[in-house]
C-alpha cells in the first residue's frame, strides 16, 4: 500500500511508475500518469492524487489533512483497510488496485 511505500522510503515516482506498469486497468493507468505529471511539475503528492482523480472525495481530503500533519502513511493504511471491506464500488476497487500494486512492488512480488 501507499503507507508501505512511504514508510520504506521508496521514491514516490518510482512506486507510481511501477504500479502503472503493472496495472491492468487503462483508466487507472491514465490517472497514475496524470498524477505523476502533476507530481513531477511540483505538486505535493496529496494535490497530485486529488487533481488526477486517482483518489477523490472525502478520501482525498483525508490525505490532504494527513500530509499537513505528517500522518499520510497512517491514512493510507486506514483507507486500504476500508477499501478491502467495501467490495464492489468501482472507485474503491480502482484505488484498492493501486494500493495492492504498490504493496506488491515494495515486497518484490512484481
What's the main sheet like?
none
Q: What structural class do you assign from the helix and strand content?
A: mainly alpha
Mean pLDDT across all amino acids = 76
What's the number of helices? 7
| Approximate helicity band | over 70%
Radius of gyration: 12 Å
Would you report the number of β strands? 0
Q: Which segments are poorly predicted (pLDDT under 50) over 5 or more consecutive residues?
A: none
Distance between the termini: 14 Å
- Shape call: globular
Strand content: under 5%
User: SSE order, as H and E?
Assistant: HHHHHHH
Layout of secondary structure:
Elements: H1 2-8, H2 12-22, H3 26-40, H4 45-52, H5 58-69, H6 72-86, H7 90-106
Helix pairs in contact: 1-6, 1-7, 2-3, 2-7, 3-4, 4-5, 5-6, 6-7
Structure description:
By secondary structure, the protein is mostly helical. Helices cover 77% and strands 0% of the residues. The protein has seven helices and no strands. Helix 2 runs antiparallel to helix 3 and helix 6 (72-86) packs across helix 7 (90-106). It is globular. The two termini are 14 Å apart. The model has no long low-confidence stretch (mean pLDDT 76).
Amino acid at each position: 500500500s501507499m503507507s508501505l511505500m512511504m514508510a520504506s522510503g521508496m521514491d514516490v515516482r518510482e512506486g507510481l511508475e511501477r504500479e502503472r506498469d503493472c496495472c491492468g486497468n487503462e483508466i487507472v493507468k491514465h490517472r497514475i500518469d496524470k498524477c505523476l505529471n502533476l507530481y513531477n511539475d511540483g505538486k505535493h503528492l496529496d494535490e497530485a492524487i486529488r487533481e488526477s482523480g486517482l483518489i477523490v472525495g472525502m478520501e482525498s481530503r483525508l490525505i490532504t489533512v494527513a500530509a499537513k500533519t505528517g500522518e499520510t502513511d497512517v491514512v493510507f493504511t486506514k483507507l486500504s483497510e476500508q477499501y478491502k471491506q467495501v467490495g464492489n464500488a468501482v472507485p474503491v476497487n480502482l484505488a484498492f488496485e493501486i494500493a495492492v500494486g504498490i504493496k506488491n512492488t515494495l515486497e518484490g512480488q512484481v
